[in-house]
Amino acid sequence: MDDSIDIASFLTLEGNSINDSVSVKINQNKSCDRMALTNPNPMGPWKITVYDQEHFQGKRMEFTASCQNAMECGFDNIRSLKVECGAWVGYEHSSFNGQQFVLERGEYPRWESWSGSNAYHIERMMSFRPICSAVSIGSHKESKMVVFEKENFIGKQWEMNDDYPSLQAMGWANNEIGSMQVQSGAWVCYQFPGYRGYQYIMECDRHGGEYKHYREWGSHAQTFQLQSLRRIQQ
Questions:
Q1: Distances (CA, A) of 184 to 6, 28, 161, 205, 232
Q2: H or E element that contains 32
Q3: What local confidence, expressed as pLDDT, does residue 44 receive?
Q4: Low-confidence winner among 57-71, 83-97, 110-124, 147-161 (lowest mean pLDDT)
Q5: What is residue 30's predicted lDDT score, i.e. its pLDDT?
Q6: How big, in percent rounded to 5, are the helix, strand and coil portions of the chain?
Q7: d(CA 189, CA 197)
Q8: What's the CA dihedral at 173, 177, 179, 182 to 10 degrees?
Q9: pLDDT above 50: residue 136
Q10: What is the average pLDDT score of the chain?
Q11: What is the DSSP letter of 71?
Q12: Which span out of 20-34, 47-61, 100-114, 115-129 was modeled with the highest average pLDDT?
């Protein structure tokens, strides 16, 4: 019995020497198939197209679910991408490690497009996944998060349901947040005011929405410093 499956409706490849997209049959036991075909939240929809060259050139592949390792799908790096449906988070390294980059609907012709004003100049993205709890634009559902002065939900607290380009300008006492509870939606928090610096994606459906310490913000987190944050919408 043939154990391969036609995945044309999920995944499309385009090579440098081929102008038209071609459907591919890939053996199901390949990890790339599992990533492209296994959507952990089938209510969707999510869709992202990644390219191995800048400005949407070179080989491309479409995904409707998480990709844990772009190298297993034939990419040495992701150099441009288009988000067509949903919101996503990209990671510097495979297995969802390293710096995080929020990817909302739109086109990203070069790495600067998703790293924004991040001063660390990371030109690498090797894994990505949908942000399933992001609130749809125009919906009546509210994003809500409570931040705490100290770790383990101790000290002064502040409930948030809007975007804050500068927490200190809005009355937060210092440049650090000790812990947070995401009650609904998804948020991206930034190291510096004006949505600059390291990005940290906070979601109500991960960690039970509870982030007790900066070590739970991501593998790249090394400090409690957070000075701006905003809602993620799709």
A1: 37, 36, 9, 8, 11
A2: helix 31-37
A3: 60
A4: 110-124
A5: 42
A6: 10, 40, 45
A7: 9
A8: 90
A9: yes
A10: 83
A11: G
A12: 47-61
Question: What is the four-CA torsion angle of 91, 94, 95, 97, rounded to 10 degrees?
Answer: -50
Please tell me the predicted confidence (pLDDT) of residue 141: 76
- Indicate if the pLDDT at residue 203 is higher than 60: yes
Work out the average pLDDT over 85-101: 95
Q: How far apart are CA 156 and CA 139, in angstroms?
A: 31
The beta strands (E) that lie in the chain are given as 4-6, 25-27, 47-53, 57-63, 80-85, 88-93, 97-103, 106-108, 127-130, 144-150, 154-160, 179-184, 186-192, 196-203, 210-211, 228-231
Give me the amino acid identity at 159: E
Q: How long a stretch of residues is the chain?
A: 234
Q: Any idea what DSSP says for residue 105?
A: S
Structural domains of the chain sorted by starting position, each given as residue range(s) with its CATH number in brackets:
4-130 (2.60.20.10), 144-231 (2.60.20.10)
